[in-house]
Sequence to fold (519 residues):
Amino acid sequence: MSATAQSKFAYAQMEASLLVKAEGVEQYRTQAVFIDLRNLPMPPTKFLLQRDPLGKVTGSDKIDISITGDILGLSIQNLEKLIKLPYASSESSIALTASNVAILKYLTRTNKLIDSLKKRLINNTERGYQRVLEYRHADASFSKWGSAETNGSTWVTAHVAKALSAASVFTPTINNNVIRKAFRFLRSQRNADGSFQENEDTNRYGDLQRVSVTAVAALSFLQYNSTSAAGSEELDKTLRKAVNYLEDQLELIQNDSYVLAMTAYALTKANSPKKIDALSLLKKRMVHGQSSIHWTVDETVKDGYQMAENSYSTSSKDVEATAYALLNFLANKDLDTSMQIVSWLISKQNAEGGFFSAPDTSVALEALAASAKTLTSPPSLQGEVADGTDGMRKYKFTITPESSLSVQDMIFAEKPDELSVHAEGSGVAVAYLSSTCHVLQPREKVSFDVNVTVKTFSLKKSRLDICVRYQKDGASGTTVAEVNTLNFPDTNLMKKKLKICLVRLKDCGKPNVTERTPD
Fold:
Protein backbone atom coordinates (compact mmCIF):
# COMPACT_ATOMS: atom_id res chain seq x y z
CA MET A 1 0.00 0.00 0.00
CA SER A 2 1.30 3.46 -0.80
CA ALA A 3 0.10 6.87 0.29
CA THR A 4 1.05 10.32 -0.96
CA ALA A 5 0.52 13.73 0.63
CA GLN A 6 1.36 16.97 -1.12
CA SER A 7 0.96 20.66 -0.43
CA LYS A 8 2.58 23.76 -1.87
CA PHE A 9 5.18 23.56 0.91
CA ALA A 10 6.06 19.86 1.07
CA TYR A 11 5.65 16.43 -0.50
CA ALA A 12 5.66 13.05 1.31
CA GLN A 13 5.17 9.47 0.19
CA MET A 14 4.97 6.28 2.24
CA GLU A 15 4.84 2.63 1.33
CA ALA A 16 3.92 -0.13 3.79
CA SER A 17 2.73 -3.71 3.77
CA LEU A 18 -0.99 -4.13 4.36
CA LEU A 19 -2.14 -7.15 6.33
CA VAL A 20 -5.19 -8.59 4.59
CA LYS A 21 -7.26 -11.22 6.37
CA ALA A 22 -10.11 -13.22 4.94
CA GLU A 23 -13.60 -12.32 6.07
CA GLY A 24 -15.65 -14.60 8.27
CA VAL A 25 -14.77 -16.69 11.32
CA GLU A 26 -11.52 -18.63 11.43
CA GLN A 27 -11.90 -22.36 11.97
CA TYR A 28 -9.16 -24.90 12.46
CA ARG A 29 -8.93 -28.64 12.72
CA THR A 30 -5.95 -30.62 13.88
CA GLN A 31 -4.88 -34.20 13.39
CA ALA A 32 -1.89 -36.17 14.54
CA VAL A 33 -0.18 -39.29 13.25
CA PHE A 34 1.81 -41.15 15.88
CA ILE A 35 4.85 -42.68 14.16
CA ASP A 36 5.89 -45.74 16.19
CA LEU A 37 8.92 -47.56 14.81
CA ARG A 38 10.11 -49.16 18.04
CA ASN A 39 9.16 -52.71 17.08
CA LEU A 40 7.70 -52.95 13.57
CA PRO A 41 7.82 -50.98 10.29
CA MET A 42 4.94 -48.58 9.72
CA PRO A 43 3.08 -48.31 6.39
CA PRO A 44 2.34 -44.87 4.87
CA THR A 45 -0.47 -43.16 6.77
CA LYS A 46 -2.91 -40.75 5.16
CA PHE A 47 -4.15 -37.62 6.86
CA LEU A 48 -7.92 -37.27 6.80
CA LEU A 49 -8.60 -34.04 4.91
CA GLN A 50 -12.09 -32.84 5.82
CA ARG A 51 -14.58 -31.66 3.25
CA ASP A 52 -14.89 -27.90 2.95
CA PRO A 53 -17.39 -26.50 5.47
CA LEU A 54 -20.51 -24.75 4.25
CA GLY A 55 -19.81 -21.07 3.66
CA LYS A 56 -16.03 -21.38 3.33
CA VAL A 57 -14.32 -18.24 2.03
CA THR A 58 -12.49 -19.03 -1.21
CA GLY A 59 -8.72 -18.81 -0.92
CA SER A 60 -8.65 -18.84 2.90
CA ASP A 61 -7.19 -22.36 3.24
CA LYS A 62 -3.92 -22.87 5.06
CA ILE A 63 -2.38 -26.27 5.74
CA ASP A 64 0.56 -26.74 8.12
CA ILE A 65 2.36 -29.97 8.96
CA SER A 66 4.68 -30.05 11.98
CA ILE A 67 6.91 -33.04 12.69
CA THR A 68 8.83 -33.65 15.91
CA GLY A 69 10.73 -36.54 17.42
CA ASP A 70 9.36 -36.00 20.90
CA ILE A 71 5.81 -36.37 22.21
CA LEU A 72 6.19 -32.98 23.93
CA GLY A 73 8.17 -31.31 21.12
CA LEU A 74 5.30 -29.12 19.87
CA SER A 75 4.32 -28.10 23.41
CA ILE A 76 7.91 -27.20 24.31
CA GLN A 77 8.32 -25.04 21.21
CA ASN A 78 5.13 -23.12 22.10
CA LEU A 79 5.56 -22.81 25.87
CA GLU A 80 4.22 -19.26 25.99
CA LYS A 81 1.19 -20.15 23.83
CA LEU A 82 0.01 -23.28 25.66
CA ILE A 83 -2.41 -21.36 27.88
CA LYS A 84 -4.63 -18.85 26.15
CA LEU A 85 -4.15 -15.24 27.24
CA PRO A 86 -5.31 -13.12 28.96
CA TYR A 87 -5.28 -14.75 32.36
CA ALA A 88 -8.89 -14.11 33.19
CA SER A 89 -9.14 -16.50 36.15
CA SER A 90 -7.03 -18.62 38.47
CA GLU A 91 -7.50 -21.65 36.20
CA SER A 92 -5.16 -20.23 33.55
CA SER A 93 -2.50 -19.33 36.10
CA ILE A 94 -2.64 -22.76 37.75
CA ALA A 95 -2.41 -24.43 34.37
CA LEU A 96 0.54 -22.24 33.35
CA THR A 97 2.43 -23.34 36.46
CA ALA A 98 1.48 -27.02 36.29
CA SER A 99 2.19 -27.38 32.55
CA ASN A 100 5.66 -25.87 32.77
CA VAL A 101 6.52 -27.95 35.85
CA ALA A 102 5.45 -31.14 34.06
CA ILE A 103 7.77 -30.30 31.16
CA LEU A 104 10.56 -29.34 33.57
CA LYS A 105 10.28 -32.74 35.27
CA TYR A 106 10.33 -34.58 31.96
CA LEU A 107 13.33 -32.72 30.50
CA THR A 108 15.27 -33.09 33.76
CA ARG A 109 14.69 -36.85 33.97
CA THR A 110 15.62 -37.38 30.32
CA ASN A 111 18.72 -35.10 30.46
CA LYS A 112 17.30 -32.85 27.73
CA LEU A 113 17.07 -29.67 29.82
CA ILE A 114 19.38 -27.11 28.22
CA ASP A 115 19.98 -23.75 29.92
CA SER A 116 17.84 -21.66 27.58
CA LEU A 117 14.84 -23.98 28.01
CA LYS A 118 15.32 -24.13 31.76
CA LYS A 119 15.27 -20.34 31.98
CA ARG A 120 12.04 -20.10 29.95
CA LEU A 121 10.31 -22.82 31.96
CA ILE A 122 11.27 -21.37 35.34
CA ASN A 123 10.30 -17.84 34.25
CA ASN A 124 6.89 -19.12 33.12
CA THR A 125 6.46 -21.04 36.39
CA GLU A 126 7.30 -17.99 38.50
CA ARG A 127 4.96 -15.83 36.43
CA GLY A 128 2.17 -18.34 36.96
CA TYR A 129 2.87 -18.37 40.71
CA GLN A 130 2.67 -14.57 40.95
CA ARG A 131 -0.63 -14.56 39.06
CA VAL A 132 -2.06 -17.33 41.25
CA LEU A 133 -1.47 -15.15 44.31
CA GLU A 134 -3.94 -12.61 42.90
CA TYR A 135 -6.74 -15.13 43.61
CA ARG A 136 -5.79 -15.82 47.25
CA HIS A 137 -8.23 -15.12 50.09
CA ALA A 138 -7.48 -13.98 53.63
CA ASP A 139 -7.97 -17.54 54.96
CA ALA A 140 -5.17 -18.79 52.60
CA SER A 141 -7.65 -20.43 50.24
CA PHE A 142 -7.96 -19.69 46.52
CA SER A 143 -10.92 -19.30 44.19
CA LYS A 144 -11.54 -18.94 40.49
CA TRP A 145 -12.21 -15.19 40.65
CA GLY A 146 -10.34 -14.23 43.83
CA SER A 147 -11.72 -11.35 45.89
CA ALA A 148 -14.77 -11.14 43.60
CA GLU A 149 -16.07 -14.23 45.43
CA THR A 150 -17.02 -14.48 49.08
CA ASN A 151 -15.61 -17.93 49.77
CA GLY A 152 -12.49 -19.76 48.77
CA SER A 153 -12.86 -22.96 46.75
CA THR A 154 -11.67 -26.36 48.00
CA TRP A 155 -11.34 -27.55 44.40
CA VAL A 156 -9.25 -24.56 43.27
CA THR A 157 -7.15 -24.53 46.47
CA ALA A 158 -6.32 -28.23 46.02
CA HIS A 159 -5.17 -27.60 42.44
CA VAL A 160 -3.10 -24.59 43.53
CA ALA A 161 -1.51 -26.48 46.42
CA LYS A 162 -0.65 -29.42 44.16
CA ALA A 163 0.86 -27.22 41.45
CA LEU A 164 2.91 -25.11 43.87
CA SER A 165 4.15 -28.18 45.76
CA ALA A 166 5.52 -29.58 42.52
CA ALA A 167 6.89 -26.20 41.39
CA SER A 168 8.72 -25.49 44.67
CA VAL A 169 11.29 -28.16 43.81
CA PHE A 170 12.40 -26.10 40.79
CA THR A 171 11.54 -22.57 41.89
CA PRO A 172 12.93 -21.50 45.28
CA THR A 173 11.10 -18.14 45.09
CA ILE A 174 7.80 -19.86 45.91
CA ASN A 175 6.88 -19.13 49.53
CA ASN A 176 6.44 -22.42 51.38
CA ASN A 177 4.11 -20.68 53.86
CA VAL A 178 1.63 -20.15 51.02
CA ILE A 179 1.67 -23.91 50.37
CA ARG A 180 1.45 -24.92 54.04
CA LYS A 181 -1.43 -22.55 54.74
CA ALA A 182 -3.28 -23.77 51.65
CA PHE A 183 -3.08 -27.34 53.01
CA ARG A 184 -4.18 -26.08 56.42
CA PHE A 185 -7.27 -24.62 54.73
CA LEU A 186 -7.90 -27.93 52.95
CA ARG A 187 -7.77 -29.81 56.26
CA SER A 188 -10.38 -27.41 57.63
CA GLN A 189 -12.75 -28.51 54.85
CA ARG A 190 -12.79 -32.18 55.91
CA ASN A 191 -16.00 -33.93 56.82
CA ALA A 192 -16.23 -36.65 59.44
CA ASP A 193 -16.37 -39.38 56.78
CA GLY A 194 -13.06 -38.26 55.24
CA SER A 195 -14.57 -36.40 52.30
CA PHE A 196 -14.01 -32.71 51.52
CA GLN A 197 -16.70 -30.09 51.13
CA GLU A 198 -16.87 -27.36 48.51
CA ASN A 199 -17.80 -23.88 49.70
CA GLU A 200 -17.89 -22.23 46.30
CA ASP A 201 -21.40 -21.29 45.24
CA THR A 202 -21.58 -23.58 42.24
CA ASN A 203 -22.18 -27.17 41.29
CA ARG A 204 -20.03 -27.16 38.17
CA TYR A 205 -18.55 -30.53 39.12
CA GLY A 206 -21.84 -32.40 38.79
CA ASP A 207 -23.84 -34.69 41.04
CA LEU A 208 -20.68 -36.42 42.29
CA GLN A 209 -19.09 -33.15 43.41
CA ARG A 210 -18.03 -34.36 46.86
CA VAL A 211 -16.25 -37.41 45.41
CA SER A 212 -14.47 -35.40 42.71
CA VAL A 213 -13.37 -32.70 45.19
CA THR A 214 -12.09 -35.38 47.57
CA ALA A 215 -10.16 -37.09 44.75
CA VAL A 216 -8.49 -33.80 43.77
CA ALA A 217 -7.68 -33.05 47.43
CA ALA A 218 -6.18 -36.54 47.88
CA LEU A 219 -3.98 -36.08 44.81
CA SER A 220 -2.86 -32.75 46.21
CA PHE A 221 -1.87 -34.28 49.57
CA LEU A 222 -0.08 -37.12 47.76
CA GLN A 223 1.96 -34.57 45.80
CA TYR A 224 2.79 -32.71 49.01
CA ASN A 225 3.88 -35.93 50.70
CA SER A 226 6.33 -36.56 47.86
CA THR A 227 8.22 -33.32 48.58
CA SER A 228 10.76 -32.65 51.29
CA ALA A 229 8.39 -30.21 52.99
CA ALA A 230 5.95 -32.97 54.00
CA GLY A 231 5.94 -35.30 57.01
CA SER A 232 3.07 -34.39 59.32
CA GLU A 233 1.05 -37.03 61.18
CA GLU A 234 -2.04 -34.85 60.76
CA LEU A 235 -1.51 -34.76 56.98
CA ASP A 236 -1.13 -38.53 56.86
CA LYS A 237 -4.32 -38.98 58.85
CA THR A 238 -6.20 -36.62 56.53
CA LEU A 239 -4.97 -38.53 53.49
CA ARG A 240 -5.84 -41.95 54.92
CA LYS A 241 -9.40 -40.90 55.69
CA ALA A 242 -9.81 -39.35 52.23
CA VAL A 243 -8.57 -42.55 50.58
CA ASN A 244 -10.91 -44.67 52.73
CA TYR A 245 -13.82 -42.46 51.67
CA LEU A 246 -12.91 -42.81 47.97
CA GLU A 247 -12.65 -46.59 48.31
CA ASP A 248 -16.24 -46.68 49.56
CA GLN A 249 -17.53 -44.66 46.56
CA LEU A 250 -16.41 -46.90 43.70
CA GLU A 251 -19.84 -48.41 43.10
CA LEU A 252 -21.43 -44.95 43.14
CA ILE A 253 -19.06 -43.45 40.57
CA GLN A 254 -18.61 -46.44 38.25
CA ASN A 255 -20.74 -44.87 35.50
CA ASP A 256 -18.99 -41.47 35.49
CA SER A 257 -15.74 -41.70 33.52
CA TYR A 258 -14.43 -38.32 34.67
CA VAL A 259 -14.81 -38.84 38.41
CA LEU A 260 -13.84 -42.52 38.13
CA ALA A 261 -10.57 -41.69 36.32
CA MET A 262 -9.55 -39.14 38.96
CA THR A 263 -10.51 -41.43 41.82
CA ALA A 264 -8.76 -44.47 40.32
CA TYR A 265 -5.56 -42.49 39.90
CA ALA A 266 -5.72 -41.23 43.50
CA LEU A 267 -6.19 -44.79 44.79
CA THR A 268 -3.28 -46.02 42.68
CA LYS A 269 -1.00 -43.20 43.88
CA ALA A 270 -1.98 -43.98 47.49
CA ASN A 271 -1.35 -47.72 46.89
CA SER A 272 -4.86 -48.51 48.06
CA PRO A 273 -5.95 -52.18 48.20
CA LYS A 274 -8.91 -51.08 46.04
CA LYS A 275 -6.73 -49.77 43.20
CA ILE A 276 -7.20 -52.96 41.16
CA ASP A 277 -10.98 -52.75 41.54
CA ALA A 278 -10.90 -49.13 40.38
CA LEU A 279 -8.71 -50.05 37.40
CA SER A 280 -11.15 -52.82 36.43
CA LEU A 281 -14.05 -50.35 36.46
CA LEU A 282 -12.01 -47.95 34.35
CA LYS A 283 -11.31 -50.67 31.78
CA LYS A 284 -15.04 -51.33 31.42
CA ARG A 285 -15.57 -47.74 30.25
CA MET A 286 -12.86 -47.74 27.57
CA VAL A 287 -13.82 -46.47 24.13
CA HIS A 288 -11.75 -48.22 21.45
CA GLY A 289 -10.83 -46.47 18.23
CA GLN A 290 -8.46 -47.49 15.47
CA SER A 291 -5.23 -48.14 17.45
CA SER A 292 -6.40 -45.80 20.20
CA ILE A 293 -8.23 -45.85 23.54
CA HIS A 294 -9.97 -43.02 25.37
CA TRP A 295 -12.81 -42.25 27.77
CA THR A 296 -15.81 -40.07 27.11
CA VAL A 297 -18.10 -38.26 29.50
CA ASP A 298 -20.99 -38.11 27.02
CA GLU A 299 -22.15 -41.66 26.25
CA THR A 300 -24.13 -40.44 23.19
CA VAL A 301 -20.92 -39.37 21.46
CA LYS A 302 -19.59 -41.91 19.00
CA ASP A 303 -15.84 -42.54 19.10
CA GLY A 304 -15.21 -39.49 21.23
CA TYR A 305 -16.49 -36.97 18.70
CA GLN A 306 -19.42 -34.64 18.96
CA MET A 307 -20.73 -32.10 16.51
CA ALA A 308 -19.96 -28.51 17.50
CA GLU A 309 -21.48 -25.63 15.60
CA ASN A 310 -19.07 -25.76 12.70
CA SER A 311 -16.54 -28.51 13.35
CA TYR A 312 -15.90 -31.73 15.19
CA SER A 313 -14.49 -31.36 18.67
CA THR A 314 -13.95 -33.40 21.79
CA SER A 315 -15.17 -32.51 25.24
CA SER A 316 -12.56 -30.94 27.50
CA LYS A 317 -13.72 -33.36 30.20
CA ASP A 318 -12.99 -36.27 27.81
CA VAL A 319 -9.39 -35.09 27.57
CA GLU A 320 -9.08 -34.73 31.35
CA ALA A 321 -10.64 -38.15 32.01
CA THR A 322 -8.38 -39.79 29.42
CA ALA A 323 -5.29 -38.05 30.82
CA TYR A 324 -6.05 -39.24 34.37
CA ALA A 325 -6.62 -42.73 32.98
CA LEU A 326 -3.26 -42.62 31.21
CA LEU A 327 -1.51 -41.66 34.47
CA ASN A 328 -3.28 -44.61 36.10
CA PHE A 329 -2.25 -47.16 33.46
CA LEU A 330 1.34 -45.88 33.47
CA ALA A 331 1.49 -46.24 37.26
CA ASN A 332 0.17 -49.81 36.89
CA LYS A 333 2.86 -50.61 34.25
CA ASP A 334 0.31 -51.39 31.52
CA LEU A 335 2.44 -50.00 28.70
CA ASP A 336 0.49 -51.46 25.74
CA THR A 337 -2.74 -49.77 26.82
CA SER A 338 -0.83 -46.60 27.71
CA MET A 339 0.57 -46.30 24.18
CA GLN A 340 -2.92 -46.50 22.68
CA ILE A 341 -4.13 -43.79 25.08
CA VAL A 342 -1.17 -41.59 24.12
CA SER A 343 -2.12 -42.01 20.46
CA TRP A 344 -5.61 -40.62 21.15
CA LEU A 345 -4.41 -37.75 23.38
CA ILE A 346 -1.88 -36.36 20.94
CA SER A 347 -4.55 -36.43 18.22
CA LYS A 348 -6.49 -33.86 20.28
CA GLN A 349 -3.69 -31.30 20.61
CA ASN A 350 -4.11 -27.94 18.93
CA ALA A 351 -1.56 -26.24 16.71
CA GLU A 352 0.37 -24.92 19.74
CA GLY A 353 0.61 -28.26 21.55
CA GLY A 354 -2.12 -27.43 24.06
CA PHE A 355 -5.67 -28.73 24.26
CA PHE A 356 -9.18 -27.26 24.64
CA SER A 357 -8.91 -25.41 27.94
CA ALA A 358 -6.45 -24.50 30.67
CA PRO A 359 -7.41 -27.36 33.06
CA ASP A 360 -7.30 -30.14 30.46
CA THR A 361 -4.02 -28.82 29.03
CA SER A 362 -2.23 -29.05 32.39
CA VAL A 363 -3.49 -32.59 33.17
CA ALA A 364 -2.88 -33.87 29.63
CA LEU A 365 0.67 -32.51 29.52
CA GLU A 366 1.39 -34.07 32.92
CA ALA A 367 0.22 -37.41 31.52
CA LEU A 368 2.11 -37.06 28.23
CA ALA A 369 5.28 -36.06 30.09
CA ALA A 370 5.00 -39.18 32.25
CA SER A 371 4.42 -41.33 29.17
CA ALA A 372 7.24 -39.77 27.18
CA LYS A 373 9.78 -40.88 29.78
CA THR A 374 8.39 -44.43 29.92
CA LEU A 375 7.26 -45.19 26.39
CA THR A 376 9.62 -43.42 24.02
CA SER A 377 13.17 -44.05 22.90
CA PRO A 378 15.72 -41.80 21.12
CA PRO A 379 14.49 -41.49 17.51
CA SER A 380 16.67 -42.10 14.49
CA LEU A 381 14.48 -42.00 11.43
CA GLN A 382 13.96 -40.56 7.98
CA GLY A 383 10.66 -39.94 6.27
CA GLU A 384 8.63 -37.95 3.84
CA VAL A 385 5.30 -36.19 3.52
CA ALA A 386 3.70 -36.85 0.13
CA ASP A 387 1.36 -34.32 -1.52
CA GLY A 388 -0.98 -36.06 -3.96
CA THR A 389 -2.24 -32.85 -5.56
CA ASP A 390 0.38 -32.51 -8.28
CA GLY A 391 2.47 -35.49 -9.23
CA MET A 392 3.01 -36.73 -5.69
CA ARG A 393 5.44 -34.04 -4.53
CA LYS A 394 7.49 -35.25 -1.57
CA TYR A 395 8.93 -33.31 1.36
CA LYS A 396 11.64 -35.16 3.26
CA PHE A 397 12.50 -34.95 6.96
CA THR A 398 15.16 -36.48 9.21
CA ILE A 399 15.04 -36.84 12.99
CA THR A 400 18.03 -37.71 15.16
CA PRO A 401 18.38 -37.99 18.97
CA GLU A 402 20.02 -34.56 18.97
CA SER A 403 17.19 -32.93 17.00
CA SER A 404 14.30 -34.77 18.66
CA LEU A 405 12.94 -31.66 20.40
CA SER A 406 13.01 -29.59 17.21
CA VAL A 407 9.86 -29.06 15.17
CA GLN A 408 10.05 -29.20 11.38
CA ASP A 409 7.29 -27.23 9.65
CA MET A 410 5.84 -27.60 6.15
CA ILE A 411 3.34 -25.01 4.89
CA PHE A 412 0.95 -25.60 1.98
CA ALA A 413 -0.52 -22.50 0.35
CA GLU A 414 -3.35 -24.54 -1.16
CA LYS A 415 -5.32 -27.44 0.19
CA PRO A 416 -3.95 -30.68 -1.34
CA ASP A 417 -6.21 -33.47 -2.50
CA GLU A 418 -4.25 -35.94 -0.42
CA LEU A 419 -1.48 -35.94 2.20
CA SER A 420 0.33 -38.89 3.70
CA VAL A 421 3.36 -39.46 5.92
CA HIS A 422 5.81 -42.35 5.90
CA ALA A 423 8.99 -42.98 7.90
CA GLU A 424 11.66 -45.64 8.34
CA GLY A 425 14.15 -46.17 11.14
CA SER A 426 13.70 -46.55 14.89
CA GLY A 427 12.02 -44.69 17.75
CA VAL A 428 8.89 -42.56 17.74
CA ALA A 429 7.81 -39.26 16.25
CA VAL A 430 4.61 -37.26 15.81
CA ALA A 431 3.31 -35.57 12.66
CA TYR A 432 0.66 -32.88 13.28
CA LEU A 433 -1.60 -31.46 10.60
CA SER A 434 -3.32 -28.14 11.20
CA SER A 435 -5.86 -27.00 8.61
CA THR A 436 -7.32 -23.50 8.78
CA CYS A 437 -9.96 -21.70 6.76
CA HIS A 438 -12.46 -18.87 7.17
CA VAL A 439 -16.21 -19.45 7.13
CA LEU A 440 -19.08 -17.03 6.70
CA GLN A 441 -21.18 -17.80 9.75
CA PRO A 442 -25.00 -17.50 9.60
CA ARG A 443 -26.33 -14.97 12.06
CA GLU A 444 -28.54 -17.50 13.83
CA LYS A 445 -25.52 -19.69 14.57
CA VAL A 446 -23.61 -16.97 16.42
CA SER A 447 -23.43 -17.59 20.18
CA PHE A 448 -22.67 -13.99 21.22
CA ASP A 449 -23.96 -10.61 20.18
CA VAL A 450 -20.99 -8.19 20.27
CA ASN A 451 -21.47 -4.43 20.23
CA VAL A 452 -18.30 -2.35 19.84
CA THR A 453 -18.27 1.41 20.43
CA VAL A 454 -15.30 3.76 20.11
CA LYS A 455 -15.58 6.90 22.22
CA THR A 456 -13.13 9.65 21.27
CA PHE A 457 -12.37 12.30 23.89
CA SER A 458 -9.49 14.05 22.12
CA LEU A 459 -6.86 13.42 19.45
CA LYS A 460 -4.78 11.51 22.02
CA LYS A 461 -7.47 9.79 24.05
CA SER A 462 -10.07 7.23 22.98
CA ARG A 463 -11.90 4.41 24.70
CA LEU A 464 -13.05 1.13 23.21
CA ASP A 465 -16.20 -0.27 24.87
CA ILE A 466 -17.24 -3.85 24.15
CA CYS A 467 -20.65 -5.13 25.18
CA VAL A 468 -21.12 -8.88 24.88
CA ARG A 469 -24.43 -10.69 25.29
CA TYR A 470 -24.85 -14.47 25.30
CA GLN A 471 -27.71 -15.39 22.96
CA LYS A 472 -28.37 -19.00 23.95
CA ASP A 473 -30.04 -20.67 26.89
CA GLY A 474 -28.17 -21.51 30.08
CA ALA A 475 -24.66 -20.48 31.06
CA SER A 476 -21.96 -19.49 28.59
CA GLY A 477 -19.06 -20.51 30.78
CA THR A 478 -15.99 -18.30 31.09
CA THR A 479 -15.65 -16.22 27.94
CA VAL A 480 -12.94 -13.77 26.91
CA ALA A 481 -13.46 -10.89 24.51
CA GLU A 482 -10.09 -10.64 22.77
CA VAL A 483 -9.04 -7.35 21.19
CA ASN A 484 -6.19 -7.12 18.69
CA THR A 485 -4.61 -3.66 18.85
CA LEU A 486 -3.01 -1.87 15.93
CA ASN A 487 0.75 -2.16 15.57
CA PHE A 488 1.65 1.50 16.22
CA PRO A 489 5.22 2.65 15.56
CA ASP A 490 5.02 4.50 18.88
CA THR A 491 5.13 1.72 21.50
CA ASN A 492 3.84 4.09 24.17
CA LEU A 493 0.48 4.09 22.42
CA MET A 494 0.31 0.34 22.92
CA LYS A 495 0.32 0.86 26.68
CA LYS A 496 -2.99 2.65 26.65
CA LYS A 497 -5.56 0.71 28.64
CA LEU A 498 -8.35 -0.98 26.76
CA LYS A 499 -11.60 -1.74 28.51
CA ILE A 500 -12.10 -5.46 27.83
CA CYS A 501 -15.18 -7.34 28.94
CA LEU A 502 -14.23 -10.61 30.58
CA VAL A 503 -17.63 -12.25 30.49
CA ARG A 504 -19.08 -14.83 32.85
CA LEU A 505 -22.71 -14.80 31.83
CA LYS A 506 -25.68 -16.76 33.05
CA ASP A 507 -29.18 -15.96 31.87
CA CYS A 508 -27.79 -12.79 30.26
CA GLY A 509 -26.53 -11.41 33.56
CA LYS A 510 -24.10 -8.54 33.92
CA PRO A 511 -20.53 -9.21 32.79
CA ASN A 512 -17.50 -8.81 35.01
CA VAL A 513 -15.35 -6.06 33.51
CA THR A 514 -11.65 -5.67 34.11
CA GLU A 515 -9.11 -3.34 32.57
CA ARG A 516 -5.90 -4.81 31.17
CA THR A 517 -2.89 -3.19 29.60
CA PRO A 518 -1.85 -5.21 26.55
CA ASP A 519 1.42 -7.11 27.11
Summary: The radius of gyration is 25 Å. Residues 90-109 form the longest helix (20 residues). The chain has a mean pLDDT of 82.
